[in-house]
């Protein structure tokens, strides 16, 4: 509550400390539908495979295995009633955004992506004010740390041919490739506002807004297995890089209604402004190519909605049972879907329970199974005449996910 809508702190007497942990294990697999290894020629804006003689000597590769990786998402929340029945202060530390996929290094989409890992951790101090028995408001500041690691295969043969230098071409045989890895990090800052109203004694409505957070991620790019003939070619030189990213703003509304002393009904809807991310450009900041774009990934994310409904049933003073479902839109458009984030619409099915052995302690735990809609891939060999050939990636992503969560709460 300290993070999702801090105005809800005004329903907590005295102080409260909450620790949470979620384990998320997605399964993401690729089914090939006619992909091609990188090639040169009339290859801009097409997924068609080339005629003989235009290939660069790279093998197509396998389908990539399971790209989903196990993630542990911790959270810590503290609230305290600083001024009796009027003002509460809180502090939240959690992981609001994150993504991780890792395909086999020899898979057919390796020139588009191998490893993609983005981690955030958010620190959020807040203040909530209970105006009266019907309305509470809150405001807070956010300091968010982001780290990223992105890797993909690089066609050294394509770089050699583009140089036009016979010695470099001769020293870089067909099929020569390595792995380019970009690592970087940055701090970003934002803010949040919330309001909670009690229109009826048994009903609460909350609205929360969280701002965009902008980053200038700075780090380095490295190329492994680079042939000696390319030692003086700046396009595949190690060096420093940066990327500008704006993580989206969100607006959420939630309603809880105590239908009977035992039965609680819950619903919420969240809008996320993913359209703040259109292209992901990595730019060199050192060497003779400083200021030039190292790589461009068209993303064209769309804004999304997530809606959820749930019920809680107080079985006895110590036990409360919960169940719910949610529909969660994916942010990717089919023609731009990348193996770095093969996102698609999802349906959540969740169950859980709370055990409250005393007035001070409570333990919540739950499990969710996430059904992920099959998603198409139709990435071109090249998006523009200046982009590096990556091979066309045509097929279907299939997946699902398991989420296991636990929360401990201590009131003081």
CATH superfamily, by name, is: Outer membrane protein transport protein (OMPP1/FadL/TodX)
Question: What count of structural domains?
Answer: 1
If classified by CATH, what would the architecture be?
Beta Barrel
The CATH topology name reads: Porin
What overall geometry do the principal axes of the alpha carbons give? Answer: elongated
Query: What is the helix tally?
Result: 2
Radius of gyration: 25 Å
Parts with pLDDT < 50 across at least 5 consecutive residues: none
Helix content range: under 10%
Q: How does the major sheet shape up?
A: 14 strands, antiparallel, barrel
Strand order of the largest sheet: 1-2-3-5-6-7-8-11-12-15-16-17-18-19
Secondary structure class reads mainly beta
Average pLDDT rating: 96
* CATH class type: Mainly Beta
User: Strand tally, please?
Assistant: 19
Amino- and carboxy-terminal Cα gap? 17 Å
* Secondary-structure element string: EEEEEEHHEEEEEEEEEEEEE
Strand content: over 45%
Report on the structure:
By secondary structure, the chain is mainly β. The protein has a single domain (6-411), classed as Beta Barrel (Porin), CATH 2.40.160. The chain contains two helices and 19 strands. Strands 1-2-3-5-6-7-8-11-12-15-16-17-18-19 form a 14-stranded antiparallel barrel. A hairpin with a 4-residue loop joins strand 5 and strand 6.
Outline the fold blueprint:
Elements: E1 15-32, E2 71-83, E3 87-94, E4 98-102, E5 115-130, E6 135-155, H1 156-163, H2 166-170, E7 177-200, E8 203-210, E9 213-223, E10 239-247, E11 250-258, E12 263-272, E13 279-284, E14 293-298, E15 304-314, E16 319-328, E17 346-355, E18 361-379, E19 393-411
């Amino acid at each position: 509550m300290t993070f999702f809508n801090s105005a809800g702190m005004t329903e907590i007497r005295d102080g409260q400390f909450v620790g949470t942990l979620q384990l998320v294990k997605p399964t993401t697999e690729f089914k090939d539908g006619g992909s091609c290894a990188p090639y040169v020629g009339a290859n801009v804006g097409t997924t068609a495979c080339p005629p003989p003689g235009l290939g660069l000597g790279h093998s197509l590769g396998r389908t990539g295995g399971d790209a989903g990786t196990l993630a542990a998402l911790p959270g810590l929340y503290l609230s305290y009633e600083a001024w009796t029945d009027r003002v509460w202060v809180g502090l939240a530390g959690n992981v609001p955004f994150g993504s991780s996929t890792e395909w086999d290094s020899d898979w057919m989409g390796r020139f588009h992506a191998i490893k993609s890992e983005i981690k955030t951790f958010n620190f959020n101090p807040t203040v909530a004010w209970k105006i009266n028995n019907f309305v509470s408001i809150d405001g807070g500041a956010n300091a968010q740390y982001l780290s990223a690691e992105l890797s993909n295969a690089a066609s050294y043969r394509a770089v050699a041919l583009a140089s036009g230098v016979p010695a470099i071409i001769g020293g870089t045989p067909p099929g020569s490739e390595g792995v380019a890895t970009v690592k970087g990090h940055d701090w970003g800052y934002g803010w949040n506002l919330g309001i909670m109203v009690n229109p009826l004694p048994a009903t609460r409505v909350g609205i929360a807004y969280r701002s965009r957070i902008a980053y200038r991620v700075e780090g380095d790019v490295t190329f492994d297995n680079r042939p000696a003939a390319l030692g003086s070619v700046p396009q595949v030189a190690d060096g420093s890089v940066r990327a500008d990213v704006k993580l989206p703003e969100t607006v959420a509304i939630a309603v809880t209604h105590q239908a009977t002393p035992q039965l609680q009904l819950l619903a919420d809807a969240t809008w996320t402004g993913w359209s703040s991310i259109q292209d992901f450009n990595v730019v060199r900041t050192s060497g003779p190519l400083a200021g030039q774009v190292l790589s461009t990934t068209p993303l064209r994310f769309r804004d999304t909605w997530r809606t959820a409904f749930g019920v809680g049933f107080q079985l006895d003073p110590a036990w409360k049972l919960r169940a719910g479902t949610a529909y969660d839109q994916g942010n990717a458009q089919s023609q731009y879907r990348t193996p770095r984030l093969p996102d698609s619409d999802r349906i959540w099915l969740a169950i859980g329970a709370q055990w409250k052995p005393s007035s001070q302690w409570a333990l919540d735990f739950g499990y969710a199974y996430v059904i992920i809609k099959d998603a198409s891939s139709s990435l071109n060999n090249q998006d523009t005449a200046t982009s590096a050939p990556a091979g066309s990636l045509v097929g279907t992503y299939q997946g699902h996910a398991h989420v296991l969560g636990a929360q401990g709460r201590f009131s003081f």
